[in-house]
Design a protein that fits this description.
The complex is a heterodimer of chains A (102) and B (305). Chain A has 102 residues and is mainly alpha-helical. Chain A is 55% helix and 5% strand. Chain A is globular, with a radius of gyration of 16 Å. Chain B has 3 domains: 105 residues, DnaJ domain (Helix Hairpins); 86 residues, Urease metallochaperone UreE, N-terminal domain (HSP40/DNAj peptide-binding domain, Sandwich), CATH 2.60.260; 91 residues, Urease metallochaperone UreE, N-terminal domain (HSP40/DNAj peptide-binding domain), CATH 2.60.260. Chain B has a 4-stranded mixed β-sheet. A 3-stranded mixed β-sheet of chain B has the order 1-5-4. In chain B, strands 2-3 form a two-stranded antiparallel sheet. In chain B, 26% of the residues are buried. The chains are: A mainly alpha (102), B alpha+beta (305). Strand 2 of chain A pairs antiparallel with strand 4 of chain B, so a sheet runs across the interface.
Chain lengths: 102, 305
Amino acid sequence: MTHDDILTGALLDDVCLTVDELAQACATEPRWIIERVEAGYLCGEPSQPPTQWRFASAELLRARRLVVTERDFDANPELAALVVDLIEEVHQLRHRLHAAGA
Amino acid sequence: MEFKDYYRTLGIDKTASADDIKKAYRKLARKYHPDVSKEPDAEARMQEVNEANAVLSDPEKRALYDQVGSGQQAGQPFRPPPDWDAGFEFPGGGADSGDFFENLFGRGRSGRAGQFRMRGEDRHARIRIDLRDAYDGASRTISLRRPQADGQGRVVLQEHTLNVRIPKGVKEGQQIRLGGQGDPGIGGGPAGDLYLEIRFTPDPRYRIDGRDVYETVPVTPWEAALGGPIDTPTPSGPVTLQVPAGSQAGRKLRLKGRGIPGDPPGDLYVVLEVVLPPADSDSARRLYETMAREMAFDPRRTTGA
């Protein structure tokens, strides 16, 4: 590939990640992902088996935040999920504050 | 290459215990947390802190760093002493020990290459685009540093420039996955992928919610009261918009389908802001006085004042 080629990537949400791909993207193990999903830390509880699960942009970002929080602070998964919930809420509120013209 | 003082980055001394390092790292990880920190350069500082921690928290890397770094000053040009790596078996695939360390020590040795195959790690980066780029699509050039094998079989970090197409209709927070553009594999394994997270460059004219876009447009009191056409810029080009008679400040006019393109496309909301002309001349003052006299209007009538 030359540097002048323009790369066209896949837009997540059009294409979604499997458990293995999400684990790879977060430098973690598939088992880690499955445990966080089953505990409800990563997304809503799925009705299908893990091989059918698909993840989009929002879950990728959330999973990476969970990984980093658990790793950097030796946080247990419940605490990491709580921290990430708060981070997400802060982002939403900042966004609304900006939208309100503040 | 400049010498980086990892101890100084973490604010600890050279005799720090593993526990001191962990404590110092956590303190800084909190201070420069990219989602929470109010420090202006939080993201860059966090990268340096991560780099220092990745080396100092690993006893083997720390020993190597200490041996090479003795007598060096931060920021000074740095030449490794001869035989600096004698006696060390350095494991490959160190997760995120940073640029300086990896430039110096590489990421594993050629001798290991035949022993196992490993897929390269996925990489992540953020990319800022203008709202306009989400309407039209665009291409962006980004520079990343990534490890590559040099002539001696050692892996060094090299600047890697990519031209990336930003698809039309992309939303804030969406990720673009570029297959095979992450770290190269080890022992002939496939390369990892590169994920780019889309962020919009802040633009004071527009506020964005998913695919909907909000824009505040100033109007005169008579345009708001009497209605009429006004010209206004929008992300997809200027439009002429009909202001309905009797509009108040804050009224939202929806321009269907003029938000970020997609299926379905977002809408553009024009929010009217009524701006009063200043009463800074005799004639302007007289006009306000005439209104005060002739219009029976008390906006506080229903507030109980």
